[in-house]
Amino acid sequence: xxxxxxxxxxxxxxxFKYDHFLVSLFINRILKNGKKRLARRLLYKSFELIEFRTxxxxxxxxxxxxxxxxxxxxxxxxxxxxxxxxxxxxxxxxRSTNIAVRWIIEFSRKRAGKGMSLKLANELLxxxxxxxxxxxxxxxxxxxxxxxKAF
Length: 151
Known about the structure:
The chain is mainly alpha-helical. It has helices spanning about 20-30, 35-55, 60-70, 95-110, 115-130, 135-145, and strands at about 75-80, 85-90. The protein is globular.
C-alpha cells in the first residue's frame, strides 16, 4: 500500500436517462458478467412497471425505498481472547446506502416469479411502503446490534 498518496473515493457517474446518482449505483449492483446494457434495461423496465402501477415518479419511490432500507449500524466480528463478539459500529451515509442497495437487489433476486424487472419493481414498492424482505433484514440487524450493545 502506497504511503505517498491517499486516493480519493471514486463515485459512479450519474445515469444519462434519469440523471441520478442512485440509478447508476443500482445499475452497477445489478450488473453481472460485465453486461451493463442488460442491467440498465432491467432497471428501466422495473421503473416503467412502478410508474404504471403507482402513477408516481419511480425515482421518488427508489429514494424512499432506499431511505427505508438504510441501516444505521453494522455488526463487525471482533475477536477477544478465544471468543468472537459481534460489535455494532455506526455507518456513514454512503456505506449504509450501498448496503441498502445490495439488500434490495439480493432479495429481489431471491423472490419467486419470472423476470428480474418485475421482481425488482415489487421489492422496491414493498420497501417504499415499509414492508418486504430488505426491511426485515434491516430490522433484524438493528435488533442484533441492540442485543450486542455491551461490546
